[in-house]
């Protein structure tokens, strides 16, 4: 389950930020997770709760904002919505679609005290 290592990386980033800002507690972490990122949001929430135990982020709320998949279809020359990696273009059926969005994961916001 790669969500555990992702949660550990998020905690490291959040802890460094909280320490740099002389915070005493992390209240909320907002993540953007792309639909095509291969990250299971519920598994990540579970792992985040586990890895934050005993840290400055213990009890912090983890909010996840879903980012839709998007790609550029070479034959159509258009940007199209994507439901899965390597899926067909919904307009022409071609599989020559280059992913342009929705494969990322980033910490968007951290609320601290």
Which key terms come to mind for this protein?
alpha+beta; hypothetical protein PF0899 fold; 6 strands; about 110 residues
Structure, explained:
The protein is α+β, with helices and mostly antiparallel strands and about 110 residues long. The chain has a single domain (about 5-110), classed as 2-Layer Sandwich (hypothetical protein PF0899 fold). Helix content is about 25%, strand content about 35%. It has helices at about 5-20, 40-50; strands at about 25-35, 60-65, 70-75, 80, 95-100, 105-110. The strands form two sheets. The chain has a three-stranded mixed sheet, with helices on one face. A three-stranded antiparallel sheet has the order 4-3-5, with no helix packed on it. α1 packs across α2 (about 40-50). It is elongated and about 55 Å long.
Question: What's the quick description here?
Answer:
It is built from 2 helices and 6 strands; from the N terminus they run H-E-H-E-E-E-E-E.
* SS element count, helices: 2
Give the strand tally.
Answer: 6
Q: Unreliable stretches, pLDDT < 50, 5 or more residues?
A: none
N-to-C SSE string, H for helix and E for strand? HEHEEEEE
Into how many domains do the coordinates divide? Answer: 1
Q: Major beta sheet, specifics?
A: 3 strands, mixed
Strand-residue fraction?
25-35%
Strand order of the largest sheet: 2-1-6
Mean pLDDT across residues? 95
Q: Taking Cα atoms only, what radius of gyration do you get, to the nearest Å?
A: 17 Å
Q: What share of the residues lie within helices? A: 25-40%
Secondary-structure content class: alpha+beta
- What is the CA-CA span between the terminal residues? 31 Å
CATH class: Alpha Beta
- Per the CATH scheme, the topology name is hypothetical protein PF0899 fold
Q: What characteristic shape results from the CA principal axes?
A: elongated
Pfam families: HypA (PF01155)
Organism: Candidatus Dechloromonas phosphorivorans
Binding site for Ni(2+): 2
GO molecular function: metallochaperone activity; nickel cation binding; zinc ion binding
